[in-house]
Design the sequence.
C-alpha cells in the first residue's frame, strides 16, 4: 500500500483518538480534604482551617494550654506539579515544621512505572522517609544508592534508588519546590523575593579595579584565623587551629557575584566573562569563590560540577542550591591572590535575589576519636550585598527544574549521540558498509552489543510504551510534557527515532536501537549451536498473529485515555522493565514471562517483536507516514527471484518482492544480498550472459 494512501486512511483514526483524549475530563490536583488530613495527623494533633490563599493546612498541637503550630501540611501536586514518567505528577504529603525541618513526607499517589509492579512501592516509601528531620534551609540532592553510608553529608543528601534515578529526581524536585513555596509564604524565608526575576543591568562599560571592587564591598573576604578556629572547637575538646601563628588565616576566601558586568569583567577578563554569560541559562546566577588559605573548603575530594560540601550560599534563612560550573580554572584577575577557585551556578528556579543580602558560609571539619572518629563541624559566614540600582527587577516565570540530569549525564548523551550519528551514514549509504557481506555483519553485531550493554543496561534508555502512556495522561491531566526532560538519554533516542520514523519507517529503532530486541538477536544466535531448528510460521497464521500487537496497543491507549489503572498492567506486556531496567531482578512471574519470550525467540525468531510488542505496533502505524520507500529492489525481485524473501526472517518481503515496511526491522540483509554479485541471483545470471541489470524501485505495501 503506498505511503500516501496509508496516510489518508490513518488520518481519521488519529483524529478520532485525539477527540477521545480531549473528551476526558481533567484530573483534580490535591485529593486530601480535612478527613484525609486527619487520617495522616490523628489526635492529639488537630488539623486547622485550610489557608484561603495557599493550599496549606496548619497542624496544631496543644502546648501549655494553648495550641501551637506543629507543622504546615500540604500536597506537593498543588504547589509543584512536576510530571513524572507516568505523565502525571507524583503527589507527596509534606509536613513542614515552623523552623523549616521536615516533620513527615508521605506518598499519596504516583504513577511512576519503575515502582508500579517493578521495584514495588516500598523503595519509594523508604526514599521519602529520609527527608524526616532534614531542613528545607539546606539544599538536598539525590546521591547514589547508599551515598550517606559512604560518607555523603546526611543533612543534605538522600540515598538514591538504583534503576529509578530519574524518578527520584522528579520526586526530590517536587518535595523541595513545594516546600520552598510554603517556607517563603508561611515561615518568612526570603518572602520578599517571591514572584520576582532580578537580573543585572545591561553593561555600562565600567571596569573598576580589584581594589575599587573591594572598597565598594563588591568583592568580599571571609577569613578565619587559627585563633578563631581554636576557639570554635574548644568546647568539643579538639584542636581547631592549623600550623602557624594564632593571627594567621586558616581559611581565607574572596568571593563576589559575577553577573554584574563591572564585577565579572574585572575578575574574569572580557573574553572569559562573555563566555560565562553565554553558558549561564536564563535567570541563572554565578558566584566566584577563591580560596587563599591553607584550609581549602572545596575539599580534597571535590568533584567538578558537583555541589561543594563545605560551601553554602544562603538567603533569607534558606540554603540556595549552588553547583560548581566545571569550567577552566585558569585566568582569574592578576590582582587576586593565587588559590583554588570555583564558580558556582545558582539556577533561576532557586528564587535567588542578587539585589538582596545573602551569605556565604564555609564549614571547618575536625575529627574526634581514633577507631570510630566523630566529625565535628563548625560554620563561619560572611554577608554580601550589592546596591539595588545594579539590578532590574521584574515578574519572574518559574525556571526549569530538569537541568541537573542533563548536566549529570552529559557523557552518556555524548556517547549515544556519536553512535546515532555513526548509524545514519551506514544505513543511508547502501553501497558502502552495508554492501560488504564480511564487514557488515561484524558491524551489526558490535552495534547491537552497544545497544544492549550501553543504551539498555548502562544508560537505562530502553524506549517503552510507558512513554506513550505518559503522553496520553499528560494530554488528559497535566498538558505538560516536562516529564520527558528528566530522562535525557531516552529523550535523545526518542527524537532520533521519530525523525527516522518519518523518513525510513519503524525499523531503525526496532532493528538497531531496542535493547530487548538486541538481546533477542543474541539469544536467537544460540539456536544453531544448540541445534534448535527455528519454526517458520505459516503465512496465514503469521498475518493473524501480527494483528495481536495492535490489539494490545489499542487496549493500553484506551485505558490510559480513560484514566484506568489497567493501562499500567497492560503495559507489562512489554518485558523491557524486567529484562533491561531491572536486570531480571523482580518477582518471579515477571522474570518467567521475560525468560519465556526469550525461549520463544529460540524457536520463533523475534516472536515478541513481530506479534506482541505494543511499542512496535505504534511505530508501525506511524511509520506508514514515512517519506521514502528506500530499500532497493530489482524488477526480477519476486519473479523469478525469491532469495531475499526466503532469507528474511521477519517475513517482511512479499512473494512479489515488495518490502512490507511496517514489518521491516531494517536488518539490511536483503540490501547486502542485492549488492553482492555473488549472492544476488539476477546479478549472477546477468553476468553469465554478459549483461548488467539496474536497481529499480518497487512500491511498498
Sequence:
Amino acid at each position: 500500500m503506498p505511503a500516501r494512501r496509508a496516510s489518508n486512511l490513518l488520518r481519521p483514526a488519529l483524529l478520532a483518538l485525539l477527540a477521545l483524549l480531549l473528551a476526558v475530563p481533567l484530573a483534580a490536583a490535591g485529593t486530601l480534604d480535612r478527613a484525609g488530613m486527619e487520617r495522616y495527623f490523628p489526635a492529639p494533633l488537630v488539623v486547622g482551617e485550610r489557608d484561603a490563599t495557599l493550599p496549606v493546612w496548619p497542624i496544631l498541637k496543644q502546648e501549655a494550654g494553648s495550641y501551637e503550630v506543629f507543622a504546615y501540611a500540604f500536597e506537593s501536586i498543588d504547589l509543584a506539579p512536576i510530571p513524572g514518567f507516568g505523565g502525571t505528577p507524583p503527589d507527596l504529603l509534606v509536613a513542614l515544621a515552623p523552623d523549616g525541618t521536615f516533620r513527615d513526607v508521605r506518598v499519596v499517589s504516583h504513577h511512576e512505572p519503575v515502582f508500579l509492579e517493578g521495584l514495588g512501592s516500598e523503595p519509594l516509601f523508604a526514599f521519602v522517609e529520609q527527608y524526616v528531620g532534614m531542613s528545607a534551609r539546606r539544599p538536598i540532592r539525590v546521591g547514589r544508592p547508599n551515598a550517606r553510608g559512604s560518607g555523603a553529608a546526611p543533612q543534605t543528601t538522600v540515598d538514591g534508588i538504583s534503576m529509578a534515578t530519574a524518578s527520584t529526581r522528579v520526586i526530590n524536585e517536587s518535595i523541595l519546590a513545594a516546600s520552598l513555596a510554603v517556607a517563603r509564604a508561611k515561615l518568612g524565608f526570603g518572602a520578599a523575593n517571591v514572584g520576582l526575576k532580578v537580573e543585572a543591568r545591561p553593561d555600562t562599560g565600567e571596569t573598576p579595579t580589584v581594589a575599587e571592587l573591594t572598597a565598594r564591598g563588591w568583592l568580599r573576604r571571609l577569613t578565619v584565623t587559627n585563633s578563631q578556629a581554636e576557639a570554635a572547637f574548644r568546647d568539643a575538646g579538639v584542636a581547631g587551629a592549623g600550623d602557624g601563628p594564632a593571627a594567621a588565616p586558616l581559611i581565607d576566601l574572596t568571593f563576589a557575584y559575577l553577573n554584574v558586568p563591572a564585577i565579572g569583567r574585572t575578575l574574569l577578563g572580557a573574553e572569559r566573562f562573555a563566555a560565562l554569560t553565554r553558558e549561564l541559562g536564563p535567570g541563572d546566577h554565578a558566584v566566584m569563590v577563591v580560596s587563599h588559605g591553607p584550609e581549602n573548603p572545596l575539599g580534597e575530594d571535590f568533584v567538578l560540577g558537583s555541589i561543594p560540601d563545605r560551601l553554602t550560599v544562603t538567603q533569607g534563612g534558606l540554603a540556595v542550591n549552588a553547583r560548581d560550573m566545571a569550567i577552566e580554572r585558569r585566568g582569574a584577575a592578576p590582582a587576586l591572590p593565587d588559590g583554588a577557585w570555583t564558580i558556582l551556578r545558582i539556577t533561576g528556579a532557586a528564587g535567588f535575589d542578587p539585589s538582596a543580602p545573602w551569605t556565604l558560609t564555609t564549614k571547618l571539619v575536625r575529627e574526634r576519636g581514633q577507631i570510630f572518629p566523630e566529625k565535628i563541624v563548625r560554620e563561619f559566614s560572611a554577608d554580601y550585598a550589592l546596591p539595588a540600582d545594579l539590578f532590574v527587577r521584574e515578574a519572574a516565570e518559574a525556571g526549569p527544574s530538569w537541568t541537573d540530569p542533563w548536566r549529570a549525564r552529559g557523557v552518556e548523551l555524548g556517547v549515544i549521540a556519536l553512535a546515532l550519528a555513526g548509524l545514519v551514514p551506514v544505513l543511508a549509504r547502501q553501497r558502502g558498509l552495508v554492501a560488504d557481506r564480511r564487514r557488515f555483519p561484524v558491524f551489526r553485531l558490535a552495534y547491537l552489543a552497544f545497544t544492549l550493554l550501553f543504551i539498555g543496561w548502562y544508560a537505562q534508555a530502553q524506549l517503552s510504551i510507558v512513554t506513550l502512556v505518559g503522553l496520553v495522561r499528560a494530554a488528559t491531566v497535566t498538558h505538560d510534557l516536562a516529564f520527558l526532560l528528566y530522562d535525557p538519554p531516552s529523550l535523545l533516542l526518542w527524537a532520533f527515532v521519530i525523525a527516522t520514523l518519518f523518513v525510513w519507517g519503524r525499523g531503525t529503532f526496532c532493528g538497531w536501537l531496542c535493547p530487548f530486541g538486541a538481546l533477542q538477536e543474541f539469544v536467537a544466535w544460540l539456536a544453531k549451536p544448540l541445534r534448535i531448528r527455528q519454526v517458520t510460521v505459516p503465512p496465514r497464521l503469521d498475518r493473524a498473529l501480527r494483528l495481536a500487537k495492535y490489539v494490545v496497543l489499542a487496549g493500553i491507549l484506551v485505558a490510559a485515555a480513560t484514566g484506568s489503572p489497567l493501562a499500567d498492567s497492560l503495559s507489562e506486556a512489554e518485558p523491557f522493565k524486567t529484562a533491561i531496567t531491572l536486570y531480571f531482578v523482580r518477582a518471579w512471574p515477571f522474570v518467567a514471562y521475560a525468560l519465556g519470550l526469550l525461549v520463544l525467540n529460540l524457536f520463533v525468531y523475534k516472536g515478541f517483536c513481530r506479534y506482541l510488542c505494543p511499542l512496535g505496533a505504534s511505530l508501525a502505524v506511524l511509520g506508514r507516514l514515512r517519506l521514502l520507500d528506500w530499500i532497493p529492489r530489482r524488477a526480477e525481485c519476486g519473479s523469478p527471484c525469491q532469495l531475499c524473501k526466503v532469507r528474511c526472517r521477519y517475513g517482511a518481503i512479499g512473494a512479489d518482492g515488495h518490502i512490507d515496511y511496517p514489518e521491516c526491522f531494517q536488518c539490511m540483509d536483503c540490501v547486502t544480498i542485492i549488492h553482492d554479485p555473488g549472492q544476488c541471483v539476477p546479478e549472477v545470471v546477468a553476468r553469465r550472459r554478459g549483461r548488467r541489470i539496474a536497481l529499480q524501485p518497487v512500491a511498498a505495501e
Remarks:
- DSSP finds 25 helices and 18 strands in the chain.
- The radius of gyration is 31 Å.
- The longest helix spans residues 539-561.
- The mean pLDDT is 80.
